[in-house]
Write a structure and sequence with these properties.
Layout: H1 6-25, H2 34-43, H3 46-68
Length: 80
Amino acid sequence: MSAPNSSERKACWDSRDLLWKCLDDNGDKAESCLKFQGEFESNCPAQWVKYFSKRREYLKYKAKMETEGFKPAEGPKQPS
């Protein structure tokens, strides 16, 4: 597969941005954004789709850590 040219990259990024906006507006309910998901997958190389999906999850996690902080899970209680 050859690298996308400038217009193909722009189409991919625009599709990604529209999908992410839809997901943000609909509380991350993917079924509400199927049209945008389809456009995103058709306008971007498969590897980019995978990367951007992981990137979105990471950015959401990072924002959560910045606002709520880290809360370690409680392990099993040790008998005293």
